[in-house]
Amino acid sequence: MRPDTDALIVIDIQNDFCPGGALAVADGDTIIPRVNALMDEFSTVVLTQDWHPHHHASFAANHPGAAPFSLTEMPYGPQVLWPTHCVQATEGADFHPGLATDPAHLVIRKGFRPQIDSYSAFFENDRRTTTGLDGYLKARGITGVTLVGLATDYCVAYSALDAVRLGYSVRVLLGACRAIDLNGSLAAMTEQMRAAGVALED
Predict the structure, then answer these.
(1) Local structure of 161: helix, strand or coil
(2) Is 86 a catalytic residue?
(3) In 3D, which of 21, 19, 38, 37 has the Cα closest to residue 29?
(4) Quick check: is 110 catalytic?
(5) Residue 82: which of 113, 118, 110 has the closest Cα?
(6) Would residue 138 show up in a list of annotated catalytic residues for this protein?
């Protein structure tokens, strides 16, 4: 068992991010057995869930003429325009059926505000609007977090960097994550995590 001051944060293991989904991460479903086993080692387990309205501003389909994976500018900075994914109350937004959800103490839904995307488990992409996770963890006396899930170079990395910024000790189990790797994003975000002091383990 990990100390009671450590929490496991499982990022976005949802149907749309797994093979066959609208924004599939290669081999995204292969991490599920390990993630399920890890839950037994932690006294606090949090799941995050992308939860977008159909008219979300980060969807390429809502920008006439824009191609998926192109960049646009939002008031909070550059934004990748994604294929429509994880739309509220659709099968794509559901957790993968193989993921153990019963051990979760909290589910954080993110990305539900139509005009702002949300990669991190802690903040939306303006880096100011909070999800409430920090307050929850601090109220439970959590000082360290372990991150697993999808995708390494987006929601996992952004969550890890924010956790460091908030004062947690942070480790990412790369073997229990999978990446999108858009234009070199995996190498870039791995280096950012390492430079910020995130412990990167297999």
Answers:
(1) helix
(2) no
(3) 19
(4) yes
(5) 118
(6) no
